[in-house]
Write a structure and sequence with these properties.
Largest sheet: 3 strands, parallel
Structural class: mainly alpha
Radius of gyration: 30 Å
Oligomer: single chain
Number of helices: 25
Number of strands: 12
Strand content: 5-15%
Strand order of the largest sheet: 1-2-3
Distance between the termini: 61 Å
Amino acid sequence: MSLSRDEAQQSKAWPFEEARRVLKRLKGKDPEKGYVLFQTGYGPSGLPHLGTFGEVARTTMVRRAFEVLCDIPTKLICFSDDMDGFRKVPTNVPMQEELLQDLNLPLTKVRDPFGCHEGFAQHNNARLCEFLDGFGFEYEFASSTDYYTGGKFDEALMTALERFDKIQEIMLPTLGEERRATYSCFLPVSPKTGHVLQVPTLERNVAKGTIVYEEPDGERIEVPVTGGNVKMQWKPDWAMRWAALGVDYEMSGKDLIDSVVQSGKICRALGAPAPESLSYELFNDELGQKISKSKGNGLSMEEWLTYAAPESLSYFMYQKPKTAKRLYFDVIPKMVDEYHQQLRGYEDQDATQKLANPIFHIHGETAPKSDMVVPFSMLLNLAAVANAEGKEQLWGFIQRYAPEASAETHPDLDAAAVYAVAYYNDFVKPEKTYRAPTDQERAALADMAAALRDPALARQMIETKNAAMGKDDPVAELDYTSAEDLQSIVFAVGKNHGFDPLRDWFGAIYEVLLGATQGPRFGGFIALYGVDETANLIDEALEGALIN
């Protein structure tokens, strides 16, 4: 079904809400530069993390929505602030002592502690681009160093020099007394040390395009503001970039709300409108602390991709950008299963539903089909009971459950089996804690094993449960390959043994049999793992509990 602009205009999905703001900004006119410019920023003072990726992914979603709304060409620039001074050594990189010697140099002049690129920023920039390329993003990478030294900012820098006082008037009230006394929107790059200096501007010469400042040794130096001899302070730099490039849209974290406000004022002082923006909530690590590149807490992009396919990460990024979310390993299984659930529904949805589905914002109108006949969470539990070391162990169970499936016909499922084994061995296995059953639980588990071995007994248990609930209908023949029928057996056993609430029964199953506090819909697990195998698993758990 073709997605129309009328439907897109009405869509309540957040990327369309953002895209309509960008379209409104144009006031019915095509942009003079010939395209609408979306921008994301990256500070390469630390290794890229998922927050960096999230900004590109979400901005791409807004860009895709905009392209549904109109025919105006678009461009996305991923801008690296790699001319910033190196102020702090990240704790998660090698060569800590050596890097201390490079403090205050532009990031592109800092040594690469990994020894594979010309500089630290170049290494981090390459890591970012490699990852974004792997996702197939359409973007243009931009380096602050290249733009400053190559003259792309010269005209805007001259305007900033001319309007220096206006910029200072905006910035000074936002600063503390001590910093206000020495603040300048221009940071000269010392011709003596190469350091990016935070020093006052003592003189300005607009006609010559120069400033005068004092070196730490007391010498007065005059330098042009063009050609990479200076860079601008953070907020003026952001504003200057918006003005110079004509940026129409850039989102940023909630911690930068004030920066957006002040940079917007400076951008207008430079004679250009500030871009539309979205302030998104920040990601937190497992302890609820803000993720930081310099701390290296939270997840890296490579870590996520060790345990799940890239699409699950995009799905995570789509979810409620204005709501704070925990970004840690334990969110991965849920994201994988929810992504495939949305993917299965997408094909049969009408246009309005598709535009509200995260799948459209991840893939566009043409989305792949899910071949995950077994949920990722189920694969994890299968890996746990099989103590799996390789995907082959999982495929033995999968093909009995779904004979039509193979690694060749179901590549996503095959990849998920690899991810599940890795995730199980790294996170589930070290944390597995089995407990002995209570007397009530032992009796119930023994009855469940007996019911799995005897269909007649299972029907009797279900009829007993039904009678207690006021239902006297006879139970039809049970299909022991059906997850639903097997779930009925599990449910009946729990009811007949007086578990109230019934979730206590399922909790006991997970804790006694799987060594986990939560788990899959157990009927589906039995169908996948095998009826006899599950009965034997129960026997082994009960015998082990007696021995211990």
